[in-house]
Amino acid sequence: MKRRVCLALGSFSLARIVLAVMLVLIIGKVDAQDAQDFPSLRQRAEDAVKSMRPDWTLVRKDEKPKQVIYQYGTVSDGVNLSIFYGSSQEEAAVKMKSALKFLSVGPGKKITTLGDEAYLWQSERGPFAGIRFRKSNVYIDLVAPSIDVAENLAKGLAQFIQKK
């Protein structure tokens, strides 16, 4: 009788371990998928801006099926953020290329720390700076009141984008 109880407890313990491992794997998979879907990425972008500067209020939000444009804060102290969510890496690359065509002074200094392609620029007329980057199927263009704010926000957003 004692032997059956020990076996039952031993298998119960093993079952709990297996269940715990399965839950960890499922939760990890859900988190990775959440970071990749557009509504979750938009929410994480909103949260990142709010946590960085709680005093900035959302002034404008323009949502389209594959793109969202945010404006937070004021003209002199705020951030403009555009997120394009393509169905493929190629679509994001085409979107970035078409956006870069309209620039009169070029995309900026090439940087290699944010994704598949990225550029940093700083205004000659003020403290504003911006980063344009593409990672996987996402293209992000942001303008911030300083290089530090632009880099921190871009790095925070890039960590949520998974390879597709």
Tags for this entry?
single chain, 164 residues, alpha+beta, Protein Transport Mog1p, Chain A, 4 helices, globular, disordered N terminus
How does this structure look, described?
The protein is of the alpha+beta class. The protein has two domains: 1-36; 37-158, TM1622-like (Protein Transport Mog1p, Chain A, 3-Layer(aba) Sandwich), CATH 3.40.1000. The chain is 46% helix and 26% strand. It has four helices and seven strands. It has helices at 2-36, 38-52, 89-101, 147-158, and strands at 58-63, 67-73, 78-85, 109-110, 117-122, 129-135, 138-144. Strands 1-2-3-7-6-5-4 form a seven-stranded antiparallel beta sheet. A hairpin with a 6-residue loop joins β4 and β5 (117-122). α2 packs antiparallel against α4. The protein is globular, with a radius of gyration of 22 Å. Mean pLDDT is 81; it is low at 2-35.
Outline:
This protein has 164 residues and is α+β, with helices and mostly antiparallel strands. It has helices at residues 2-36, 38-52, 89-101, 147-158, and strands at residues 58-63, 67-73, 78-85, 109-110, 117-122, 129-135, 138-144. It has two domains: 1-36; 37-158, Protein Transport Mog1p, Chain A, CATH 3.40.1000.20.
